[in-house]
Amino acid sequence: MSTAAATVAAEAGVANASASGIPLKGLRGAIARNMAVGWQAPRVAMGVDVDVSACQAWLRAHPMAEGGAKPTITACVLRATALALAGHPRMNALLKDNVIECQGAVNLGLAVALDEGLMVPVIRDAETKPVAQLAQETRELAAGARAGQLSPKAYQGATFTVTNLGMTGIDWFTPVLNAPQVGILGVSSVRERAVVRDGKLGIAAMTTLTLVFDHRAIDGYPAAQFLQAVKAHLEAPDSL
């Protein structure tokens, strides 16, 4: 190849690379700005393995109501999280201008993946809603977000976020805080694992929950108590 031809090929390669670039503007830009703010917080991550075998059995015993959405593990996690937040108000808080604002209602942000980015519609007053209603709202909000049919208000006012990547098969992950919220819960896949109880080996359906929290607003011990409360509700689903 001649020098001139090589130069043309190189320039064409640069042009193609530029054309395939994704500028950080619009939705992608908003996500980038929010993630940068969340990343600046002095965050801590902690995880816990949860046996959801009893939860799966509970779901089988509570089929969906006519015309409603089928209750899922995700809906159970939302319910368990809402109940735990109601009992641990320091986690259901916003950090604004160096002031920790504990919130009265539990408004759960639910991360929904779209082709163009991540949207987080809000389930309001989640602590007052049973599993079946949470399942229905989850389905409606996810469908509305993907269709672009939700109003801006649907994405405002969350006090805590739950993000579920279980459908991707991953074992654990550490999500980024959705500032000014002080906590976010990551939900991983459910897998059958070998477990030891009372010295005996068995099989159980297990998942890993990862809590990321802003250490300026809450310390490790109360954060751990909150995460254990979520685990306790999921392992005793009659409490949901």
TrEMBL record:
Assigned EC number: 2.3.1.-
Keyword Transferase included in the entry's annotation: yes
Pfam families listed in its UniProt record: 2-oxoacid_dh (PF00198)
Molecular function terms from GO: acyltransferase activity
Domain 2-oxoacid dehydrogenase acyltransferase catalytic: from-to ranges: 20-239
Cofactor names: (R)-lipoate
Keyword tags: Acyltransferase, Transferase
Name of the protein: Dihydrolipoamide acetyltransferase family protein
